[in-house]
Amino acid sequence: MELSQIWKPCSSCKKPIGLNSIYWTCNVSTCNRKRTGHVFCSVECWDAHVPLYNHRESWAEEHRAPRVKEEEAVSEQSSASQTSRPKKDTSEREKFIQGLNDGPLDEVENERETTMSESEGNSEKEVLVVASKLKNYIRAKSGMNTSAAVVDVLSDKIRELCDQAVEAAKRDGRKTVMDRDFG
């Protein structure tokens, strides 16, 4: 198979999967994320990955690879869009989102980032809950599985509660956050 006809390698055996050919994916969402993106040349290769990821209930889903490589499709679309219609002006909101605005919204955003970095100590948000304990609790209580995104949302809620408790302790003139500050 020519290099130009290869779409991606199989995630299990590393054999090339050709453009416009049949490939298989796992139905489990964590295997299909953009970063993971597992693709398999056969059901046997998909089956080989199941024990590694400890899937309880899963199956292989059949798909067809794109007809052209993504880079080629993007370059064709961009050249077509440049000739077919003129670029629109960027709105103030889009400039703000992209960080191109020098107006008052930029000042508000810079102020918010400064206060966040001072209060958090680091720019990355850490997980504040034990994911396995949370998942076990939900499974025992309801028999349901828990999405990986729940841990991040719950950590954000805990941060909000902690920030409120810290403010309550400050109002009372204490340097210790106590259980009553969460009420």
How many strands, which pairing sense, and closed or not: the largest β-sheet? 2 strands, antiparallel
Radius of gyration: 25 Å
Distance between the termini: 66 Å
The strand line-up of the biggest sheet is 1-2
DSSP, total strands = 4
* SS content category: mainly alpha
Helix content: 40-55%
Beta fraction of the residues? Answer: 5-15%
Order of helices and strands: EEEHEHHHHH
Number of alpha- plus pi-helical segments: 6
| Average pLDDT metric | 78
Low-confidence parts: 105-119
Rough shape? flat
What do you see in this structure?
The protein is mainly alpha-helical and 183 residues long. It has helices at residues 43-53, 70-84, 92-98, 104-120, 131-142, 149-171; strands at 6-9, 16-18, 22-26, 60-64. The chain has six helices and four strands. Strand 1 and strand 2 form a beta hairpin. The protein starts with 5 loop residues before the first strand and ends in a 12-residue tail after the last helix.
